[in-house]
Amino acid sequence: MTDDGNATQPGDAAAAATAQPVLELDGLTSGYNGAAVLRDISLSVRPGEVVALLGANGAGKTSTLMTISGIVKPMRGRVLFNSADLKGTSPDARARLGVAHVPEGRGVFFGLTVAEHFRLASRGETLDAAAAYRYFPALEQLSGRRAGLLSGGEQQMLALGRALARRPKLLMIDELSLGLAPIIVERLLPVVRDYAKDSGCGVLLVEQHVELALTVADRGFVLSHGEITTHGDVAALKANPELVLSSYLGEQAVQDGNGK
């Protein structure tokens, strides 16, 4: 496995470091039409931990989440959920096991009200709207409004709230900041951190904006051209921003006395 480092939340580090991961990617290679987009990816997410998956557009971040969700099938390697191999498990079955995926673009239904989103559930599933309203009180005030009339930040709150209402064991969020003003993102990200800490849910956060993601993450992995190039706990990543930047861009920083 290629992950290291401990969670940075006071009092939680020892427990997180020894907890059985809720998610493990073991040598994962996947892609489309026989062409690999991800190559030999290994990482883990522990209960109550926020792990940031960073990288530029086209790095393979969304493909990673889609493979975990079962939408894209692995070519090699394994996706383990609570130590069980998910090979052959459908996306719907993964969701019932406790895997929640907030996709890029939010995935809300413009013609439905906020309240109707929490009544729209898979067979045998009950969404806990109260949990969503507890973490996003503004949603309760907007319960009668159609999603298409919400602002971008409110739509993202609804998408996140609906995921929390599923009481997930693993929450995956794809580009929470997309199309939102930084001040809105700064309000939403701490809620993700709080939910992970309160519930013990593991969070895999895909994000282009490194600084914002590292404000709430415990550990980070940088994905470039389908490969993990840098990883570590947040303190280590923040202490070496040049390494993160060079990995993020898929470049090797070279400096010597000649300025090359």
UniProtKB/TrEMBL annotation:
Domain ABC transporter stretches: 23-250
GO biological process, alphabetically ordered: L-amino acid transport
Domain of life: Bacteria
Alphabetical list of CDD domains matching this protein: ABC_TM1139_LivF_branched
Keyword Nucleotide-binding found: yes
InterPro entries xref list: AAA+_ATPase, ABC_transporter-like_ATP-bd, ABC_transporter-like_CS, BCAA_Transport_ATP-bd_LivF, P-loop_NTPase
KW ATP-binding (keyword) present: yes
UniProt keyword list: Amino-acid transport, ATP-binding, Nucleotide-binding, Transport
Molecular function terms from GO: ATP binding; ATP hydrolysis activity; branched-chain amino acid transmembrane transporter activity
Family designation: Belongs to the ABC transporter superfamily.
Name this polypeptide is given: ABC transporter ATP-binding protein
